[in-house]
């Protein structure tokens, strides 16, 4: 035999004990890692719940009329019913717009065609 030779019952028992020890050691290590990951996940979930609760408790920054007008504009633009889930400012209120962003926005908005519009745009 080229491998391990077991001559006595004592050798067989010690080999079995070492094998069981390795298996249970790896299982213990795996269980410990799962427990650690579970603790981190529970902490992460609590943070998400707190953030969600803060988001729910926060006062709306726009009134109902503005929200209805935004929803109507989106529905008109898309040509059907649409649900507006959130509205946010792209630029903070205290920061003025840069000329680069204003020009880019004007170019982007000017390139869209409204559905159902026949004919070409008027040129002056």
Short description:
With 124 residues, the chain is an all-alpha fold.
User: The biggest beta sheet, please?
Assistant: none
Radius of gyration, in Å, reads 33 Å
Q: Percent of residues in beta strands?
A: under 5%
CA-based shape: elongated
* Number of helices, counting only DSSP H or I runs of 4 residues or more: 3
Care to describe what's here?
The structure is a single chain. With 124 residues, the chain is mostly helical. 61% of the residues lie in helices and 0% in strands. The protein has three helices and no strands. The longest helix is centred in the N-terminal third of the chain and has 49 residues, at 9-57. It is elongated.
Secondary structure layout plus pairing:
Layout: H1 9-57, H2 64-78, H3 99-110
List its traits.
single chain; mainly alpha; 124 residues
